[in-house]
Design a protein that fits this description.
The chain is of the alpha+beta class. Helix content is about 15%, strand content about 45%. The chain is built from 14 helices and 53 strands. It is globular, with a radius of gyration of 35 Å. The two termini are about 45 Å apart.
Length: about 950
């Protein structure tokens, strides 16, 4: 990069000239020592000659040696200015050494626990603080930006940054700097393995302010411009609450790092995003500077933090200093927790309805055109919801969808006429509350009651002395508001997942009952949703609203401009009114909920009707419970089944003999001669194999063997072959047959009988045992969007034969197996965002089963390389970062496709991931064909649902 004349001058100021040599090192050591101890006396003298805009050297003394060496007076003055700048930088680096890159020599070994926002704990032990990594040593992923800058300026071999001192006073030193763009640091809300945000802060040109007395940096402000992309990055690092570890060294107890990115297009601001880290630190004896906590939710709560700090085996280390910010938050939480507890207790009847009181309750929830869900509560704490009839058919409760939540924490989903159900763990109290009251909604008060530590809460008593306002700010990711007409399965007037960043709850100061909730987003002063609570009812559990009324304004897409291809963004109002009643037993239950879209007048009405139940009405729940237990037992056997090419079992005519053999894939089975050996992959309830076989003798000594195969490879179909051999007492083959079959497995295990018949050439009396083998050949089908696609073989790979359905370039194209194998380019059978390079994009993928995931495979069919972050959703629905970095895609030169094989640093339990694309920096349409969730290196699950930030689909 070419330098301007001022930059060349600054560069000369930031380097030590060769004439100083090693003799200067001793002088610097003496200078730094004196400066630290007598900075009030020496620093003003050292810097008197630093004036705004340039370094001015004192007039050189006459010296004949200069003439002998050919050194002019101006050159000597410039060298003297360089020397003073170097001494200043050395003094600053020494004063801040214990938090820039080191710890005091006397700090012993220590350990701590890092607690993430979701409660996950990580234990760290630092045996040698002098050699430990920076993140582990500090308790947070943080490299001070001021340290990166100052260390580069002090490095005589580096030209990455230049500087000039533009101000020096008794209070402040101000340095103007310029970086070539190569300097920066990564900051993250974690220590190792998983992050609550992980960003790169790049330095450009700006100003650094320092305290002239302590030499601690106060604020760094930097601006970096990318003219090619018309993008500006502004970085600010603020350091406050200085603490003197000793007479010579200082550390900050409060650090804020802010990054603002502004991107323009055609002279207009297109995107303005801001990220922020806010951290408090502590100092332990004998001078250990260690992360303490993250103030969050506008200073009302603690986010990720450290616990159980142990120094040199002392579980109660001596604390030198801590940030006042965290202390004030903890004091605030003590005050607000009592208010929150009082509020939740006064509203327990409707926020946390007593599930025990619902024992034996049966009701029907109905909507238009005969739609009906039946909800059954049994005496053991289990709940069943059946889709008795949808509006497309006259299905009866015996053939409808079903969802069951058990008291032991399992969830079952399936169809009433299937032998198995889909099983997963369950811990969501909110769903049970919805079923207990007959309305599938969610609000901030209910989320607060379920888990108060999800929010930072501030309390304000209004001027009328009768009203109190609770302001809730999320500690973790934005929570959602679910409103409208719905219970469990389907609706035609519902707004799910409306996220908010702040909710203000107005409550009656005397009764503690809410009157109104207002929801805000994106810093807007006007709420996008208002909910009112009216007509309060007296229940045996306490008071509950008789009516809840709400209005929400949400964005909608209007007409599309044929030239710019951009849609007109509109807003629409959505209204709902829910009325409640008390049953004869005093239960608070929905009577009717009406929702309406203002622009069209369309909407939906949901009603709850109690059912006079007899014992036979609970039979569907008992039946589903049996199927759930049978499914769990079946999957347990699959998990424990042997793995290999073949299994030999005794022949018992007329009896069913268990086999439990998980098959082997063709590419693993070919030519390996490893019958009975464990395959090199992990089996966890997902495979294709053989459950049992049943041999029988038919008339005329014919032999029939029925082999029952199974598949737990959900939402996919596979071609496989089963080979059966009849063996004599010596293990010799009497007869052999092979059958080629295929599966079509949906959300629950599939069973497939395969019949083999042998003629009378084999005497049944000679058959002593039966050998059976299953080989998985290739995938033959799978879900593509909302339909099933079949696969045909090809010379190199497989490709899908598409059925009608699904939008071209819609996010639903990312569902199922990769469709465009061997084909790269802009193809409609992959998801495409709305624009090529206008904004960052994301694709969210949901899977049938929650698994212990180790990574994802992202199949990129057009302009690969844009993936920069992958997040997942934990059991509480919170979004967590699983991986962030440069796209590791491996591009097929022949096809132009790429597969990003991303592996997480930690194993995560999830059934939903979100893929983030840096579409702005990777030019062209960035399209994704499929995303496989990896459970083991050869165990992959494909998506059943997909949503996206935008789509080119019409």
């Amino acid at each position: 990069m070419k330098q301007t004349v001022p930059q060349q001058r600054f560069a000369r100021q930031a380097r030590i000239q060769g004439w100083a040599g090693n003799l200067l090192a001793l002088e610097l050591h003496v200078f730094v020592t004196l400066t630290q101890r007598y900075r009030w006396l020496l620093l003003p003298v050292a810097l008197l000659m630093l004036s705004a805009g340039r370094v001015v050297a004192a007039p050189p003394m006459p010296d004949t040696r200069q003439a002998d060496k050919g050194t002019s007076a101006p050159e000597a003055a410039e060298a003297d200015g360089d020397l003073k700048t170097t001494k200043l930088l050395a003094a600053i680096l020494e004063a801040n050494r214990y938090w820039f890159d080191g710890t005091p020599p006397g700090v012993p070994s220590y350990r701590y626990a890092f607690v993430h926002r979701d409660g996950k704990r990580q234990e760290f032990r630092i045996a040698d603080p002098q050699t430990a990594g920076a993140s582990i040593k500090r308790g947070i992923t943080y490299t001070p930006l001021v340290a990166v800058l100052l260390q580069s300026l002090a490095d005589s071999t580096s030209n990455a940054a230049t500087m000039e001192v533009v101000e020096y006073s008794n209070d402040q030193i101000q340095i103007r700097f310029h970086s070539d763009g190569s300097l920066g640091a990564r900051l993250g809300g974690g220590v190792s393995g998983r992050w609550a945000g992980y960003l790169y802060y790049k330095l450009g040109s700006g100003v650094l302010r320092l305290d002239a007395k302590t030499l601690m940096p106060i604020e760094l402000t930097s601006t970096f411009r990318d003219d090619e992309r018309d993008k500006e990055t502004i970085v600010t690092e603020k350091l406050s609450e200085p603490h003197q570890i000793d007479a010579d060294h200082v550390v900050p107890l409060h650090v804020e790092a802010i990054r603002q990115e502004r991107e323009s297009k055609n002279g207009h601001l297109k995107e303005d995003t801001t990220s922020r880290f806010d951290w408090a630190f502590r100092v332990y004896e004998p001078g250990l500077w260690l992360f303490d906590a993250e103030p969050t939710a506008a200073g009302t709560a603690i986010g990720y933090h450290l616990e159980n700090v142990v120094i040199d085996y002392s579980e109660e280390p001596v604390l030198q200093a801590s940030s006042s910010v965290v202390a004030s938050i903890r004091e605030l939480n003590k005050q607000t927790s009592a208010v929150v507890d009082q509020y939740v207790e006064a509203n327990r009847a409707w926020l946390l309805p007593d599930l025990q009181q619902r024992t034996g309750l049966i009701y029907d929830y109905t909507q238009e055109e005969g739609y009906r869900e039946r909800v059954i509560f049994d005496s053991a704490g289990n709940v069943l919801v059946q889709l008795a009839r949808d509006r497309q058919s006259d299905k009866t409760p015996l053939t409808g969808k079903l969802n069951m939540l058990t008291a032991d924490g399992r969830e079952a989903n399936g169809m009433a006429d299937e032998p198995f159900v889909a099983v997963r763990s369950f811990s969501d109290r909110n769903t049970l509350d919805k079923l207990a009251t007959g309305w599938g909604w969610q609000c901030a008060s209910k989320r607060l009651a379920h888990r108060a530590d999800n929010f930072g809460v501030s309390v304000q008593d209004m001027t009328d002395q009768k009203t109190r306002k609770l302001t809730l700010r999320p500690v973790r990711n934005r929570p959602t508001l679910d409103i409208g007409t719905m219970l469990r399965f389907i609706s035609w007037a519902y707004l799910p997942g409306k996220s908010f960043e702040r909710c203000e709850i107005e409550i009656n100061g005397e009764s503690q009952l809410p009157t109104e909730e207002n929801y805000f987003v994106d810093g807007n002063a006007k709420p996008f949703c208002t909910i009112r609570f009216e007509d309060w009812l007296e229940t045996p559990e306490g008071r509950a609203p008789g009516k809840i009324v709400g209005r929400a304004t949400y964005p909608s897409r209007g007409k599309r401009d044929p030239v710019t291809r951009e849609y007109e963004m509109l807003s629409e109002d959505f209204y709902f009114t829910a009325k409640f009643r008390l049953t004869e037993g005093g239960l608070w239950l929905l009577d009717e909920v009406v929702s309406t879209f203002e622009s069209t007048g369309s909407g939906s009405t949901g009603r709850v009707t109690l059912v006079e139940a007899g014992d036979e009405d609970y039979q569907p729940l008992r039946d589903v419970r049996k199927r759930l237990d049978a499914t769990s037992d079946f999957l347990g056997n699959v998990e424990k089944a042997a793995c290999g090419l073949e299994r030999i079992v005794p022949c018992r005519w007329g009896e069913t003999t268990p086999v439990w053999l998980n098959g082997k894939y063709a590419h693993q089975a070919t030519g390996q001669g490893d019958e009975g050996r464990e395959p090199p992959y992990v089996v966890y309830r997902k495979n294709l194999g053989i459950q049992n076989l049943h041999p029988e003798v038919l008339p005329a000594d014919k032999i029939r063997v029925t082999v029952n195969a199974y598949s737990t490879l959900y939402f996919t179909g596979y071609s496989f072959d089963v080979t059966l051999r009849l063996l004599d007492n010596e293990g010799l083959t009497l007869a052999e047959q092979t059958a080629v079959k295929s599966t079509k497995t949906m959300a629950y295990p599939e069973q497939k009988p395969i019949v083999f018949e042998f003629d009378s050439e084999v005497d049944p009396a000679n058959v002593a045992s039966i050998a059976v083998a299953l080989r998985i050949n290739r995938q033959s089908g799978g879900m593509v969007g909302s339909f099933w696609g079949s696969f045909g073989s090809s010379t190199a790979d497989t490709e899908i034969a598409y059925l009608p359905g699904g939008r071209d370039w819609g996010p639903e194209q990312a569902i199922g197996e990769p469709a465009n194998r061997g084909i790269g380019g802009d193809y409609k059978h992959a998801w495409s965002p709305l624009t090529q390079d206008d904004q960052a994009e994301w694709l969210e993928i949901s899977y049938q089963n929650r698994v212990q995931a180790i990574g994802v495979n992202v199949y990129e069919t057009c302009n690969p390389g844009a993936v920069h972050k992958v997040t997942y959703y934990d059991a509480a629905g919170n979004e967590q970062t699983a991986w962030e970095g440069d796209d590791p895609t491996s591009i097929d030169v022949g096809t132009g496709q790429g597969v990003s094989k991303i592996r997480f640093e930690d194993v995560v339990a999830t059934d939903r991931v979100r893929i983030y694309l840096d579409s702005v920096n990777v030019k062209g349409w960035n399209e994704i064909d499929a995303v496989g969730l990896i459970e083991a290196e050869t165990s992959i699950q494909w998506a059943e649902k997909a949503t996206a930030s935008s789509t080119y689909a019409h």
